[in-house]
């Protein structure tokens, strides 16, 4: 059965290393017969959650007008959510985190629509590396999100040592991302 995969990217570099990881993963997803959409959080402003607790009071997940209005329908259709981000201060970018925070609306008991997402993937590129523990914050955050939402973690591709655009090409991680996409 074909799955609908939504890739949320967090990088302000459109052709950066995490974007290359996302592209390779999407190639694998499509080769496996699934569909994929991308939402670039760095280029579609999503305001941070303001904890107003007014979710759904206007018929939409969030009362504030921002690009979450474009993202919400994509989230509602997705079977798989992919978080793709460079590592910023040991975690995901603020742009991606703002979009993730707004998933709160779908967890509310009064939410008229729930997410059907059942699986998730983490893709990340960074100057730092896993051996030095640089990814521990991001991995813990990702795992906590997946556990809390009862999503099945389908895998993580962590491409350390990738500072300059294109460095990920030399790591073998693009092939891993392609293969992970094929296994969904």
Automatic annotation (TrEMBL):
Gene3D superfamilies: 3.40.50.360. InterPro entries: Flavoprotein-like_sf, FMN_Rdtase-like_dom, ISF_SsuE-like. Keywords: Flavoprotein, FMN. GO terms for molecular function: oxidoreductase activity. Residues 4-127 form the NADPH-dependent FMN reductase-like domain. This is Flavodoxin.
């Amino acid at each position: 059965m074909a799955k609908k995969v939504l890739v949320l990217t967090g990088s302000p570099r459109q052709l950066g290393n995490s974007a290359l990881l996302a592209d390779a993963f999407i190639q694998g997803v499509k080769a496996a017969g699934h569909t994929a959409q991308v939402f670039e959080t760095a280029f579609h402003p999503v305001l941070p959650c303001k904890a107003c607790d007014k979710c759904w009071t206007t018929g939409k997940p969030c009362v504030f007008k921002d690009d979450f209005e474009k993202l919400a329908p994509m989230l509602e259709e997705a079977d798989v959510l992919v978080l793709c981000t460079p590592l910023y201060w040991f975690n995901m970018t603020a742009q991606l985190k703002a979009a993730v925070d707004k998933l709160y609306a779908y967890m509310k008991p009064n939410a008229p629509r729930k997410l059907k997402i059942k699986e998730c993937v983490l893709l990340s590129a960074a100057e730092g590396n896993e051996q030095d523990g640089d990814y521990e914050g991001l991995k813990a955050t990702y795992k906590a999100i997946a556990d809390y939402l009862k999503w099945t973690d389908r895998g993580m591709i962590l491409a350390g040592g990738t500072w300059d655009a294109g460095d990920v090409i030399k790591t073998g991680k693009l092939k891993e991302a392609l293969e992970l996409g094929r296994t969904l």
